[in-house]
Design a protein that fits this description.
Elements lengths: L1 H7 L13 H15 L6 H11 L2 H8 L7
Helix pairs in contact: 2-3
Length: 70
């Protein structure tokens, strides 16, 4: 995951294709799992994941009510 992120995330740590897209969201979710577990994440990837995570569209998705798993 880290190796892929280092290859595809631009040096400025912005969205992969210039505008936020599904790959940004998917990569951010995966990176957030590492971050939440205190796994080492390189600074550029951490900056990227934090910036994408805070976007209103991502927060709206994360805040959606989910069905309970039985």
């Amino acid at each position: 995951l880290i190796a892929v992120g280092e290859r595809v995330i631009p040096d400025h740590a912005g969205p992969i294709f210039g505008d936020i897209s599904i790959p940004d969201f998917e990569l951010t979710l995966a990176l957030q799992r590492l971050i939440a577990n205190d796994d080492p994440v390189p600074p550029r990837l951490l900056k990227y994941a934090q910036a994408i995570w805070m976007r209103p569209c991502v927060q709206a998705f994360v805040a959606q009510e989910r069905p309970k798993i039985h």
